[in-house]
Amino acid sequence: MSREKSVAVTDAAIDKIKQMILSGELAPGDRLPKEADLAERLGLSRNSLREAVRALSLINVLDVRQGDGTYVTSLEPGLLLDTMSFVLDLHRDDTVIQFFEVRRILEPAATAMATEQMSDADIAELRVILESLPARPTVEELVANDLQFHHRIAQGSGNSVLCSFIESLSGPTTRARIWRGLTQEGAMDKTREQHTAIYEAIAARQADVARAWATVHVAGVESWLRRALEMD
């Protein structure tokens, strides 16, 4: 069988399993029928079915448990978007700009939503994260704190899909943040100041102000990175 035909057969097998999930015939957590039975039922060869199962397990739709069987995963957005994180981590330096452009759209929206959705306890937790950053942090400590800070806000938006998208975009942008911290004077102080401004706007329940500061925060790194790449 040619490679093209093999891929087409595998794609057809993947589509048939997907249709079983979409129709509700297979629900999150369900175990797939035995390989021979499922292959016969779907009109597939066992090899095609195996390839389809392998592909769907790689993107966290199926969970193959040795000696137990194959199960549909929880299908939670965060689990499915883990694959996107891996793909995005393979970016080139010039394409990381596009990730920042997407972050500049999503994060301010999530921040504004968090301003309205976060409880007082959630906001207090955000303050603890903000204040946990040492007075003279290393670049690694700053980036880790930055990721934690933005994760808590995205989580506070109350939208798990939006939160998962933002988390997926954090991977390829982390390297740029470290690079910025190592080379741009004042970047650490600026990050701390902007985080404080974002926190204060959320605590004051000022959604528009929080959105504006989040935009400034992401756009600042994006603008710096554009200049750095132009000089290369």
Quick rundown:
By secondary structure, the chain is mainly α.
Tell me the layout of helices and strands.
Layout: H1 3-22, H2 35-42, H3 46-58, E1 62-65, E2 69-72, H4 77-88, H5 96-117, H6 120-131, H7 139-156, H8 160-183, H9 187-203, H10 207-231
Antiparallel strand pairs: 1-2
Please, could you describe this protein's structure?
The chain has 10 helices and 2 strands, in the order αααββααααααα. With 232 residues, it is mainly alpha-helical. The protein has 2 domains: 3-72, Arc Repressor Mutant, subunit A; 78-231, Up-down Bundle (Four Helix Bundle (Hemerythrin (Met), subunit A)). The protein has a two-stranded antiparallel sheet.
Keywords:
232 residues; mainly alpha; Arc Repressor Mutant, subunit A; Four Helix Bundle (Hemerythrin (Met), subunit A); 2 domains; two-stranded antiparallel ribbon; 74% helix; 3% strand
- Unreliable stretches (pLDDT < 50, length at least 5) are none
- CATH class of the largest domain, named Mainly Alpha
**How many helical elements?**
10
Please compute the radius of gyration using only Cα atoms.
Answer: 22 Å
General shape: elongated
The neighbouring-strand order within the major sheet is: 1-2
Largest sheet: 2 strands, antiparallel
Please write the string of helix (H) and strand (E) elements: HHHEEHHHHHHH
Mean pLDDT: 85
Helical residue percent?
over 70%
Number of domains: 2
Structural class: mainly alpha
The beta-strand count equals: 2
**CATH homologous superfamily descriptor of the largest domain:** GntR ligand-binding domain-like
Architecture per CATH nomenclature, i.e. the level-2 architecture of the largest domain: Up-down Bundle
The CATH topology name of the largest domain reads: Four Helix Bundle (Hemerythrin (Met), subunit A)
How much of the sequence lies in strands comes to: under 5%
